[in-house]
Amino acid sequence: VEQNLLTGRNQSLSDRFFFSTNRGAELQRHNRSDSELEQQHEILLSTLLLELQLHSTSTDQNKRRVNEVTLKIKY
User: Fold this and answer.
1) How far is CA 46 from CA 36, 41, 43, 51, 55, in A?
2) CA distance 43 to 32
3) What's the confidence (pLDDT) of residue 64?
4) Superkingdom of this entry's organism (predicted)?
5) Eight-class DSSP state of 1
6) Containing H/E element for 75?
7) What's the confidence (pLDDT) of residue 12?
8) How far is CA 54 from the centre of its chain?
9) How far is the first Cα of the chain from the last one, in angstroms, to the nearest whole number?
10) For 31, how many CA atoms within 13 A lie in the half-sphere containing its CB?
11) 24 — pLDDT class (breaks 50, 70, 90)
12) What is the pLDDT of residue 1?
């Protein structure tokens, strides 16, 4: 009977350790995934800002050219 109790207790401890280890690995995966998503988000935001700056610069240059051509046509 004692042997069965010890075996059952060992199995219970083993199951808890296995669950705890799996839970720890799962949390590490989630944390790594969150960190990777944050990095991707930052990269996408900086890329978007660069695209907006480029668009704004291009728009300004285009307006200047249109004004130059318009002035040449008038005079």
Assistant:
1) 15, 9, 5, 9, 14
2) 17
3) 94
4) Eukaryota
5) -
6) none
7) 82
8) 24
9) 110
10) 6
11) confident
12) 65
Query: Residue 55 has what pLDDT?
Result: 96
CA gap 60, 54 in Å, rounded: 10
**What is the 3-state secondary structure of 41-60?**
HHHHHHHHHHHHHHHHHHHH
**What Rg value do the Cα atoms of the chain yield, rounded?**
32
Q: Which element (helix H / strand E) includes 12?
A: helix 2-74
CA distance 66 to 75: 14
pLDDT tens digits, one per residue of 36-70: 999 999 999 999 999 999 999 999 999 999 999 99
